[in-house]
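Z., the sequence and structure:
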Amino acid sequence: MEINPLLITLKTSAVATVITFFAGIFLAYVVCNMKRGKSPVDAIIMLPLVLPPTVAGFFLLLVFGKRSAFGQFMLQFDITFVFTWKAAVIAAAVVALPLMYRTTRGAFEQLDPNIISAARTLGVSESKIFWRIVLPNERAGILAGTVLAFTRAAGEFGATIIFAGNVPGVTQTMSTAIYAAVQANDYDMAFKWAILWAILLATFSMVFIFAMNAVIKGRH
């Protein structure tokens, strides 16, 4: 059994998670501190979560395709996205971002506002409030969002197959490999991939639970 789909999935998910980690925290913090317009911004960020993945993939195709203005611009630098590994990362990051954002935002909103108000009264800068008060106090929620984002990115199928395709050795992830095996009536291979993927995700979930418990215990 070729191991490429597994390696591609892990690499794609890891990079996508790093992107969603920073983007999700940034967006959550910005939205939490907005005085007006929270609902429209929140709805836009959450859109990939409510759209069918294939629709999200189609919109990515429209934005990054060679016929789009952005695609034409990037072609000047000999950069393409469609049916490349970069497309797989973008697709995974887009569908995983809402989970990271919403979980992190929920964690930020649970922080006692009096703590932040007291820090501001003492003249603490916003950057120090963010790095020394907000993040340390909400690390459990951020960790939960990161894990949710990783698992969502790892299991992504619809947007990936539309935008990145199913190119063996390039964009073929575990999900698309199982799909390809079923399409080829190779149920033995599909079963092997599915069992391997289930075992890996179960192991990852157990590690996450232990890590989460350790973080929560460290807060008390």
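The chain has a mean pLDDT of 87. The first helix runs from residue 4 to 32.

Let me know what you think.
H.
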